[in-house]
Amino acid sequence: MTEFVTTADLVIGYEVDGPADGQAVVAVHGWPDDVHCWDGVVPVLAAEGFRVYRPHLRGFGPTRFRSDGKPRSGQAGALGADLRDFLDALELDDVVIAGHDWGARAGYVVGALFPDRVRSLVAMSAGHGASGPHAPLPYPLAHAYWYEWFVATCRGRETMRTDRRGFSRYLWESWSPGWDFTDAEFDAAARAWDNDDWPDITVSAYLHRWGEMAGDPAYEDIEERLAEVPAVRVPTLVLHGADDRDNLPATSEGKAELFGERYQRLVIDGVGHFVPREAPARTAREILRWIAEE
After folding, report:
1. pLDDT class for 136, splitting at 50, 70, 90?
2. What is the pTM assigned to this prediction?
3. CA distance 164 to 204
4. What is the distance of C-alpha 83 from the center of its chain?
5. What is the pLDDT of residue 135?
6. 149 CB-near residues (< 8 Å, 6+ apart)
7. 187: Cβ–Cβ under 8 A, 6 or more apart, which residues?
8. What does the pLDDT average to over 179-193?
9. Which CATH number fits domain 3-292: 3.60.70.12, 3.40.50.1820, 1.10.1760.20, 3.50.50.60?
């Protein structure tokens, strides 16, 4: 059953599993995906005594803005602030954050700028400081990021509204070419994209990322700090699929200097972009190992 918590800007829906007194793991999904990406991971963590929280990101599922006038921004600073506010609202401490894709980016923001409640971070399928107006952009990566430019066009923006399922299915298939997902898996995730804010947040996320759209002024201070690519100040494990055709594995290479605590990066053979879906047992095992080795 979905539970809800209220922050300054949002009413955040979240799922929670595991013993009430277990150490908190906050598992944050990516785009285009939803909390079901962790379905194969949660039972393993819960069986080991962890309390697993899965928040729905802004623009996804039951999460709603409290004000009609709040900008529907998908910028990294907003995602990070939402995660910080979620931890604060539930008074979660000593938290392990597991983040995939957008969830990883939110985790990097919190780990770098708001680490007080965080014990460690496991980030998947996204590199810290790997995108932005001034980030290196080799042509193979620009090719992989075609969809981020597509949303800058009128046709792309209309597609976000009228064919979000067809568009996202193509991304699932092309980003993880070796993954044979089921219609049921896809349909369960796709229901989260029926949120009326999903198109605007999607467009904002990618245009802001490349300096083509202004962000919400409320996050200006956070964005200024992120522009300097601050070091993540919690122990961090990065998992990346060797066959990721979206955020190419190179985007998380050579980043050790951006982590101020214990750091490790693992590339998983035979896995594409959707690490927790394609390799749930391996994902759970690596999360548990990372926690145990602290």
Report:
1. confident
2. 0.97
3. 15
4. 10
5. 83
6. 156
7. none
8. 98
9. 3.40.50.1820
